[in-house]
Each structure stands twice: as structure tokens, then as C-alpha cells.
Write a structure and sequence with these properties.
This protein is α/β, with parallel strands linked by helices and 349 residues long. It has 13 helices and 14 strands. Helix 11 packs parallel to helix 13 (332-343). The longest helix is centred in the C-terminal third of the chain and has 17 residues, at 308-324.
Length: 349
């Protein structure tokens, strides 16, 4: 295998592959972009026999979310709001997406200068959503083969291509937000998540947060929903406009309720993503380690298996919470907030 010497000088943003040959020249590289410490040492010792150079891996920094629940619980509305909030987003459905549509497709060139034997790659949803959000509706309607094709993109954040004589890797550093209905139409609380979703533990373990949304009868909640929908029908205009009596000031940041508009929220998220790269404090690290050990020991038959990905998910979410609170250090409060959040997910049930 021949490797161009210029690949060693390329930056991570310019390199289209997941592995960059050669040692890192960055003095600030403290291992934050590598995996768990044990895995990091193993990967450093891996040597490319053909070049004699070590291979450096990339650690996933984006979190993935799965919503599964009964019909009519607002899952698709949440998905569309996430797509509208992100500056770069791709919205697709599982019923109309194939493996090539999610990853990439090889298309024969039909231009006048080509002889019909040349191919080009067209990026799919995950490649187009690089450094953004890929929203997938009706995730359960996808075939098993199509879902398997996104395993690499969700964990390694790359798409390996070997089509029509083209061999390369595409970046897919996107957050996946997927929603789906249970396999039987209605979520059965007597069965575990794997049987309700029929996704398999290999795919479920790649989601950092999995929320189950149940349509339960609650008098106060039902009255609020009915009142809101009836007001939308009575007041003329778009159904997405809020009635005057329920106005919360989403379009006016100067009102006393303090709600932000979409533009201000987008600007704040873009600022904290670029400005902060939080590091864990010793107290937060110890708390996350103890919680991970307890979850490993208390795993039941009906719950999802707790793997190293569970610990990596807590680290990512702790750093995200620190960014949200506008600080560059993950404190004990961030770790506690993430543990409480994880206890509300389906992985803790």
C-alpha cells in the first residue's frame, strides 16, 4: 500500500479518511480526541506494516437520540424542531430511504465528454449532514440491511465506500435524531426495549439517549392539549401560530418571561460549540466512574447491556451540559445533571 507523504501534513478537517497516518504534531493534544485510555494505548501501538507509521483514530463527539413511543405523542414535531434549530440539517424518512440514500451512491457520468464508463459519488443524507443533524423519521420502517449500513457512520463517523472502482472514506460527523413507533404499534411495557423496537442491541447501544413516549390518560394533561388544539382551530391563521392568550413571547426577547427566539438560540448554540471544549474535573470523573461501575453490576435481563459506550455517552453529555452552562470545565453539577438525565432514559428501565 502506497501512502502519499502529503497525507501526514493534512489537517483533520481536510482529511477525508478516519485514520491519519503519522504522529500528531499538536502539543495541545491531551487525548481528548481519542477513545478510552486503555483503547488509546492499544491504538497507538498499532503499526501500519506497509509504511511503518502509527495510525491515529478519531473519537466520536456527537450524541445520538432515539425517540420511540405511541402514535400521536409529538415525536415528528420534535424531529422537525431539531432540524429547524440546526444550521445544517437533513430531514428524511425511513420509508423512502435506502442504503445508498443514507450513505452515498455511485452514479454513471452522462456528460458529453465522458464515454459512459466513468462514475461519480453522490453524497447521501449522513454525508450531507456532516457537522450538523440528520433527522430520520419512521426509523423502524427501514430494512435491517439499511439500518446496518449506518453503524459505521454513527460510531466511527465515516462512510467507507468501495463502489465502481472508487475506494475512499467520507466524513459523517453528524448527530442522528431518529423517531419510530413500536413494533406492535403500541409500546408494551411488559417487554423490554429491544423487543419493542426490534433494532438489536448493536444499534441501540450507539444511541446516547433513548426516550420512551407513552400516551397515558392524564386528566390535566389531556385538558391542556384539548384546549390548545381547540384554540388553534378557533383563531384564524396558521395552525402553528400560538393563540394570543397563550403567548409566551417566543418572538420578543424583551418580555418578562425571558424566552429566546429561534435566531438567538441558534446563535448561542453556534457560539458555545466553537468557543468551549470542556475538560472533566476530578470530582466529575470520579462520579461518572462510580455510576458506570454500579450500572455494570446492576444490569438485569430486561435492560439493555451496559457497555463502554455508556460511559462515553455520559462523558459527551457532561461536556455538552458544561457548554450549555457556558463554562470550559465539567463540574460536579454537570455530572449530576447527566446522571439524572440518563436515569430517565429507557437504558435505565
Amino acid at each position: 500500500v502506497e501512502v502519499d507523504d502529503q497525507a501526514d501534513e493534512a489537517s483533520d478537517n481536510e482529511a477525508p479518511v478516519a485514520f491519519k497516518f503519522g504522529e500528531s504534531d499538536d502539543e495541545n493534544d491531551d487525548g481528548d480526541n481519542d477513545g478510552i485510555v486503555v483503547q488509546k494505548e492499544k491504538k497507538k501501538s498499532t503499526t501500519n506494516k506497509s509504511t511503518g507509521k502509527t495510525a491515529k483514530s478519531r473519537r466520536r463527539t456527537q450524541s445520538h437520540i432515539l425517540l420511540i413511543g405511541d402514535p400521536g405523542t409529538g415525536k415528528s414535531q420534535f424531529l422537525r424542531f431539531a432540524a429547524a434549530l440546526s444550521p445544517r440539517s437533513v430531514l428524511t424518512t425511513g420509508t423512502g430511504s435506502s442504503r445508498a440514500g443514507l450513505t452515498c451512491a455511485a452514479v454513471r457520468e452522462s456528460s458529453a465528454g465522458s464515454n459512459g464508463n466513468e462514475f461519480s459519488l453522490e453524497a447521501g443524507a449522513l454525508a450531507l449532514a456532516d457537522r450538523g443533524v440528520c433527522c430520520i423519521d419512521e426509523f423502524g420502517c427501514m430494512s435491517k440491511e439499511d439500518r446496518t449500513s449506518i453503524h459505521e457512520a454513527m460510531e466511527q463517523q465515516t462512510i467507507s465506500v468501495a463502489k465502481a472502482g472508487i475506494i475512499c472514506k467520507l466524513n459523517a460527523r453528524a448527530t442522528v435524531v431518529a423517531v419510530m413507533n413500536p413494533a406492535g404499534g403500541i409500546y408494551d411495557e411488559n417487554m423490554n426495549l429491544e423487543r419493542n423496537s426490534r433494532l438489536g442491541s448493536a444499534l441501540l447501544s450507539r444511541f446516547d439517549l433513548i426516550f420512551v413516549m407513552l400516551d397515558q390518560a392524564q386528566c390535566e394533561r389531556d385538558e391542556n392539549i384539548a384546549h390548545f388544539l381547540l384554540q388553534q382551530s378557533i383563531i384564524p391563521g396558521s395552525a402553528f401560530e400560538r393563540p394570543i392568550e397563550m403567548d409566551t413571547g417566543f418572538n420578543d426577547d424583551d418580555k418578562a418571561n425571558g424566552h429566546w427566539g429561534m435566531e438567538k438560540l441558534r446563535a448561542y448554540i453556534a457560539t458555545i460549540r466553537e468557543k468551549f471544549q470542556p475538560t472533566l474535573s476530578p470530582e466529575a470523573s470520579e462520579l461518572l466512574e462510580n455510576h458506570y461501575s454500579l450500572c455494570r453490576q446492576s444490569t438485569s435481563e430486561n435492560s439493555l447491556p451496559v457497555t463502554v459506550r455508556f460511559l462515553e455517552s455520559m462523558i459527551r453529555l457532561s461536556q455538552a451540559h458544561a457548554r450549555l452552562m457556558y463554562r470550559n470545565t465539567v463540574t460536579l453539577d454537570d455530572a449530576v445533571a447527566v446522571i439524572l438525565l440518563m436515569e430517565c432514559t429507557a437504558a435505565a428501565s
